[in-house]
TrEMBL record:
It comes from Amedibacillus dolichus. This is DNA-protecting protein DprA. Signal peptide: none annotated. Residues 38-239 form the Smf/DprA SLOG domain. Belongs to the DprA/Smf family. It comes from the Bacteria. The lineage of its organism: Bacteria, Bacillati, Bacillota, Erysipelotrichia, Erysipelotrichales. One of its GO terms (biological process) is DNA-mediated transformation.
């Protein structure tokens, strides 16, 4: 099945439902050459955390250290256009958490990039919505290169796959599954960050949020989550309890 799933993943550009249909039909396939590392759901090396998902990935393409998936981890996520306050808070939070957890995020600009950068001297995993040879956003090129060598980047999509908009909400379920808990630094009322939170709640993962000022649109999502029962992080003592 390993080579068969690789063939389907390349043929259908990593699209989960198309791969499923190909498997169910036992669609004709042939061996494909692929320049890179990958693991399928049928391999013993497949990260077990993804099996808790309703839609576990059929295949994961990766660069770096796959064994990081088996370590305790915490997602640190938030806005792509964060305030300077939130950038500073990200550094503070990750500085504390990275001694105990692998830091997981989405390798987007903003909070994601800040979280990975702050954790690079420890352990961090980036989950992306395109092929591993596609750097998105371009401003993270140096971070990508470093993480491919010394950390871990994961994707459901084979090389050459473009960063299509709908890939990112779909990949958020992988961030949630990888993480033992989720820390939300900054999120607006309508935010992709909240999609990751919803995935984590479906998996009964604890959510922690940074509080924001009254009526602050940049932090509306965080304050809403706190009002709905998320854990609140007000100082370093709270971070130590995660």
């Amino acid at each position: 099945m390993r080579e068969q799933i690789l063939c389907y993943a390349i043929r259908y550009h990593g699209e989960w439902h198309a791969i499923k249909q190909a498997i169910l039909r036992n669609e004709e396939w042939e061996r494909c050459d692929y320049d890179g590392y990958y693991v399928t759901i049928y391999d013993k090396e497949y990260p077990q955390c993804f099996l808790q998902l309703e839609y576990p990935p059929w295949i994961l393409f990766y660069a770096g250290r796959l064994e990081l998936c088996s370590l305790p981890s915490c997602a640190v996520i938030g806005s792509r256009m964060p305030t300077q306050r939130s950038i500073h808070i990200t550094q503070q939070v990750v500085k504390q958490l990275a001694d105990r957890y692998v830091i997981v995020s989405g390798l987007a600009k903003g909070i994601d990039a800040g979280a990975h950068t702050a954790a690079c001297n420890k352990h961090t995993i980036g989950v992306i919505g395109c092929g591993l040879d596609v750097v998105y956003p371009k401003e993270n090129a140096r971070l990508y290169a470093y993480m491919k060598q010394s950390q871990l980047i994961l994707s459901e999509y084979p090389k050459g796959t473009k960063p299509l908009a709908y890939h990112f909400p779909w990949r958020n379920r992988l961030i949630a599954a990888l993480s033992d808990s989720i820390v939300v630094i900054e999120a607006k009322k309508r935010s992709g960050t909240l999609l990751t939170v919803n995935e984590a709640l479906n998996l009964s993962k604890p959510i922690y949020c940074i509080p924001h000022a009254f009526a602050d649109p940049a932090g509306y999502g965080c304050n809403l989550l706190i009002s709905q029962g998320a854990n609140i992080l007000v100082d370093e003592a709270d971070i130590a309890l995660i």
